[in-house]
Amino acid sequence: MPVRVLPDFLxxxxxxxxxxxxxxxxxxxxxENALDAGADQIVIDVVDGGRTLISVIDNGxxxxxADLPRVVMRHATSKLPTDDLLNIxxxxxxxxxxxxxxSVSDMTIDSMARGASHxxxxxxxxxxxxxxxxxxxxxxxxxxxxxxxxARLKFLRGDRAEMMSVLEVVKRLAMARPDVGFALNNKWFxxxxxxxxxxxxxxxxxxxxxxxxxxxxxxxxxxxxxLSGFISQPTLRRASSVDQYLFVxxxxxxxxxxxxxxxxxYMDVMHAREFPLCALYLTLxxxxxxxxxxxxxxxxxxxxxxxxxxxIIKSLRDALARTVNEAVNENVAQSHPAPVWSGVQxxxxxMPKMEQTxxxxxxxFSSRLFVASPxxxxxxAFMGAPTATLNTDDxxxxxxxxxxxxxxANKYILAQSGDNLVIIDQHAAHERITYExxxxxxxxxxxxxxxxxxxxxxxxVSAVLTVSDELRACGIDIDAFxxxxxxxxxxxxxxxxxxxxxxxAIADEVRANGHSSAIQERLHLKLANFACHHSxxxxxxxxxxxxxxxLRDIENTPRAGECNHGxxxxxxxxxxxxxxxFERV
Length: 585
Ligand code: ADP
Ligand code: MG
Description:
The protein is an alpha+beta fold. The strands form 6 sheets. It has an 8-stranded mixed beta sheet. A 5-stranded mixed beta sheet has the order 9-10-15-12-13, sandwiched between helices. Bound molecules: adenosine-5'-diphosphate and magnesium ion.
């Protein structure tokens, strides 16, 4: 067969196979273009799950008449002014999306460049560019998606399922840019200029209010990496990763390193089958991350993945390891929330030619309702709430969980602390204490008189050696032992397991993901089981001394808010709330 240089329309359809998987991917590319054009209002309409029509309207910079025919040419972009692929400041840069989408649909673009006297319309199928009365920003209309590629059409799911994928895409980009207003099908609205906590509540749902922890961390002395955002308290979780929003340099990503680090950070406090919620924004020098890895640009390659992973785990663990003291103070501060409503609503009246939309009212949330960042000093934070009162002896004596009143149902301890009633689940509390004690104990390394030698393939040996620092942090010292074995010279004291088995698992994981949580997971499981079986049981009668001692122990235990299965350890009920029950307010 002779070699054939493929015609452009085929090349574009082949490229479309990668970029335009389904309607949601079209919506993603069009919104990214609108954001790149500096829009702060974006209106998306999707008909029949995107099969019939996808329309994205923005109020960005627009496209000049001269540029209009070029935007649908392959590898034509305004976003790479220099030839430096490592210095990317836009969501797009490949110049592929519009030509790919146009090759599998009927596309028209209306646009007016800022400063022009009127707008222009490009009909991509004919190549015609004509004057139009379009007068702000850009509208891209994509009709009859995949009608020319029936094979693709067959792979689409039902309209409702495609619509849900579109909504997911819109939510992800809305989380990337809380400052930008989004409207989807006149039904979902994310108001312009929301602060992050308000945007999180409108995207993830009202149940997150008051249950997110702030994260704000910088790595290294010269601040080469920054992590900010919110993560959920361990008692707030989902059955899937739907509400995990991860961003690298402003770009929504689905990245193994980040997901793995998130999971590892929660390992002590959440079951592996449950998923914490998060909106986490990692910023690092663009030179240390390659975003040009997948056509859809959702994957990234870090130059130093283990460095990134370690930084994230540490930052998140710090946020999670909050003391009881802070929790009690914050709870009181929250019971008198200052009514700071952000009052942000999407105002589309400033945008001509937009479909009429009604703002959704529940996008208003007070950022005060979020649990504050663990990095601030708890006392100052507390003083910051002018109406709160907590000047009691118990706190002065540093007994945040207060004094025991008694036990009920042989299961719960009741205590009074200042103006709060505290209810403690005795089993969960004891489990957490035992677990934390064991954990610090287990990390103690015990040198072995005779090193354990594990035979493995050369590539497994080199994989395992790349995580030797992480292993050392877990109390395990290893070294190469010839080309095809490792020698284990120290392990956590009295920790027996099948080392050969463990190290093959670690090697597999490192080779697949560039890191390993296998060892931490095994350690965690073992400790959790041990803690559970050596803890005070529910149903066990305790005397006052035992109960008071338990409370003092919890106060000095990190991550005391939850047991190691993620159940709450204690609840704090402000007396004012009880007053409310009896209408004494
Ligand atoms: P890329 O975004 O990678 O540059 P695209 O094919 O998505 O490639 O878009 C090609 C070009 O069209 C962009 O570089 C930009 O100049 C222009 N463009 C696309 N959409 C818009 C828009 N909504 N507003 C202004 N310009 C746009
Ligand atoms: Mg683009």
